[in-house]
Automatic annotation (TrEMBL):
This is Asparagine--tRNA ligase. Its main location: cytoplasm. One of its GO terms (molecular function) is asparagine-tRNA ligase activity. Coiled coil: none annotated. CDD domains: AsxRS_core. The gene is asnS. InterPro entries: Aa-tRNA-synt_II, aa-tRNA-synth_II, aa-tRNA-synth_II/BPL/LPL, Asn-tRNA-ligase, Asp/Asn-tRNA-synth_IIb, NA-bd_OB-fold, NA-bd_OB_tRNA. Homodimer. Belongs to the class-II aminoacyl-tRNA synthetase family. It catalyses: tRNA(Asn) + L-asparagine + ATP = L-asparaginyl-tRNA(Asn) + AMP + diphosphate + H(+). Keywords: Aminoacyl-tRNA synthetase, ATP-binding, Cytoplasm, Ligase, Nucleotide-binding, Protein biosynthesis. It is found in: Cytoplasm. GO terms for cellular component: cytoplasm. One of its GO terms (biological process) is asparaginyl-tRNA aminoacylation.
Length: 430
């Protein structure tokens, strides 16, 4: 019977065959211990000399790291194993013998590992991070499906920018200029006017020349957009969504969290509601913490976000930002028009902003005024203005950066480990 490591618990006492790679091995006299991986998990296989043919035991003793095999044996309980089971081996078929595998159990430098990212992904730590990433994606689909959102796919090639065109990748689109998308938001607003509540999940691109541990050139965004939803309701949806993601990881990725040595007591505190402070209060908090050079109208960098987050054991919303440092489409605060109804959600433990969101301007004349202020014109933007002419309604949306969220929940220091093949300022391969 053929199975996978993930499902061995269903086959206790049965003889099964698993296609696997040899992660590592050790031997002690008449017993060889093979550490296997098959993509679904990791387990130990025990080869006893007196239980197998001579050539099988010889093969077990001489197998090289990352050699591929079909291995057959009986699944037995092993309470010492993280998996809870191991295999008592009967037979091994060698598929391909690996020779001089470059990533050995010794320490390797980051640049070496990044140059061999296509192989580094095979390690137990990277497997755990990718499993958590996958679970967050699956949980996202469950959450939005349960809340009656429809999945919509905005274009990656666009003629318009949602924010600053200086950070866009310009491409030739036949005889005109186009950009790689930095956000699907503008198109999702159009979809929300047709379908009510929508979300997208896809790649975004920022030509930002940053080398920090929080930045990637290509990253993935979850972007919901909601008709008839105003700012405060949007904040509630955001905190429910993030709480749902964390709970999904706690429920389904305990083994991966253990591999990463993640302190789950910190994750267990992540439940809605989340604390909220205004931008004005954040400025004062930073001044009180010794950031004497921070002034009204300044944006926050990583040190500022970390200092704010230190006051909380949950993500914290920073609301009501100055209009002049936020995007043109944000709805003004009804009582303080120099502010906009928006919020950044800052993760605890120094991981920075994971969500940015706002209520969008729905009034045609106000949006037209914003167009004039920002010198937006032409067919690339006219369709977006036109949304305000035909049955416009209050609506809100937000974007969650997948890689920063994975880094925070998994407790990984750098976002380069949270995407299979990271694109960094000086790295376009592998």
């Amino acid at each position: 019977m053929k199975t996978t490591i993930q499902h061995v618990a269903k086959h206790e006492g049965q003889e099964v065959t698993i296609g696997a790679w040899l992660e590592n091995k050790r031997s002690s006299g008449k017993i060889a211990f093979l550490q296997l991986r098959d993509g679904t998990g990791f387990m130990q296989a025990v080869v006893a000399k007196n239980s197998v043919d001579e050539e099988v035991f010889k093969l077990a003793k001489t197998l090289n790291q990352e050699s591929s095999i079909y291995i057959t044996g009986t699944i037995v309980e092993d309470k010492r194993s993280p998996l809870g089971f191991e295999m008592q081996v009967k037979h091994i078929d060698l598929i391909q013998e690996a020779v001089d595998y470059p990533i050995t159990p010794k320490e390797h430098g980051t640049e070496f590992l990044m140059d061999h990212r296509h192989l580094w992904l095979r390690s137990k730590r990277q497997h755990a991070v990718m499993k958590i990433r996958s679970e967050i994606i699956q949980a996202t689909y469950r959450f939005f499906s349960d809340h009656d959102f429809m999945k919509v796919d905005p274009p990656i090639l666009t003629g318009a920018s949602a924010e600053d065109t200086t950070e866009l990748f310009h491409v030739e689109y036949f005889d005109e200029e186009a950009y790689l998308s930095q956000s699907g938001q503008l198109y999702l607003e159009a979809a929300a006017m047709a379908l009510g509540k929508v979300f997208s999940f896809g790649p975004t691109f920022r030509a930002e020349k940053s080398k920090t541990r929080r930045h990637l050139i290509e990253f993935w965004m979850m972007e919901p957009e909601m008709a008839f939803v105003e700012h405060e309701e949007s904040l509630q949806i955001q905190e429910e969504y993030v709480s749902f993601l964390v709970k999904s990881i706690l429920d389904n990725c305990q083994q991966e969290l253990q591999v990463l040595n993640r302190d789950i007591s910190k994750l267990e505190k992540i439940t809605a509601p989340f604390p909220k402070i205004t931008y004005k209060e954040a400025i004062q908090l930073l001044k009180d913490k010794g950031f004497t050079d921070i002034e009204w109208g300044d944006d926050f960098g990583a040190p500022h976000e970390t200092a704010i987050a230190e006051n909380y054991d949950k993500p914290v919303f920073i609301t009501n930002w100055p209009k002049d440092i936020k995007a043109f489409y944000m709805q003004p605060h009804p009582e303080e028009p120099e502010l906009v109804l928006c919020a950044d959600l800052i993760a605890p433990e120094g991981y920075g902003e994971i969500i940015g969101g706002s209520e969008r301007i729905h009034d045609y004349e106000l949006m037209k005024k914003r167009y004039e202020e920002h010198q937006l014109s032409g067919p690339a933007y006219e369709w977006y203005l036109e949304l305000r002419k035909y049955g416009s309604v209050p609506h809100s949306g937000f974007g969650l950066g997948l890689e920063r969220t994975v880094a925070w929940i998994a407790g990984v220091e750098h976002v380069r480990e949270t995407i299979p093949f990271p694109r960094l300022l000086n790295r376009l391969y592998p």
